[in-house]
Amino acid sequence: MQPSTNPGSNKEIAGWALYDIANQAYTTVVISFVYSAFFVSYIVPEGSPWRNSYWSLAIISSTLLAMLLSPLLGLKIDQGASKKQMLLWSTAICALFTCGLYFVAPGQIWFGVLLLIITNTSWMLGEFIISAFLPDIANRKNMGVISGLGWGLGYIGGLISMIMVSVIIINADPISEQARYISQHQWAMVAISIYFVAFAIPTFLWLKDRRVSPSQESLSARWYDSLNILRLRQQQPVLLQFFIAFVFYMAGVQTVIKFIGIFTASEVGMAAGELVQVFLATQLSALAGAIGFGFLERRIGARATLYLTIGVWVTAILGMHQLANLAHWTGQSLVTVFLLVALLAGTGIGAIQSSSRSLVGQLTPKHYSGTAFGYWAVFMRLATLLGASFGLAADLIGLRPALLLVITFFIIGALLLSMVPLGRTIKALQLQDQQDAS
Question: For residue 276, what are the domain limits?
Answer without folding.
Answer: 228-438
